[in-house]
Write a structure and sequence with these properties.
There is one protein chain. This protein is α+β, with helices and mostly antiparallel strands. The protein has a single domain, classed as Immunoglobulin-like, CATH 2.60.40.420. Helices cover 25% and strands 20% of the residues. It contains three helices and six strands. It is globular and about 35 Å long.
Length: 121
């Protein structure tokens, strides 16, 4: 039985690499809240409707540098606990890469914003 020649294997190799490159090129960048940004006046529930997020996508949070953004667990999200966070950001312009499947929850570092909706679902 003859083995395929090197050109065939090389072609297959490049097709596989091209497939990976194509997927990495299809990542979407989302500005959270669009032009309003991550702000108390933004209706984040409406903003997120109809969006599907995938591994590799980027979430860009634009907010006042006097505010902060926290990533929290489901338990801390539900209880509005801003003391125990997974990650804290305070630059005013934070990009988060969705590096693995699953839910990611973000809240304002200001607990006073919880009752009025700065908590995307």
């Amino acid at each position: 039985m003859a083995m395929p020649n090197k050109k065939v294997w090389l072609h297959v190799f490049f097709m596989i690499i091209a497939g990976f490159a194509l997927r990495s090129c299809t990542a979407t960048t989302y500005i959270v809240g669009d032009s309003s940004g991550w702000d108390i006046s933004t209706d984040l529930d409406t903003w997120s409707q109809g969006k599907r997020f995938f591994v590799g996508d980027l979430l860009v949070f634009q907010y006042s540098s006097s505010e902060s953004l926290n990533e929290v667990t489901r338990e801390n999200f539900d209880s509005c606990n801003t003391a125990a966070v997974l990650k804290a950001y305070s630059t005013g312009n934070t990009t988060v890469t969705l590096s693995e499947p699953g839910q990611r929850l973000f809240v304002s570092g200001n607990r006073l914003y919880y009752p009025i909706g700065l908590r995307p679902r």
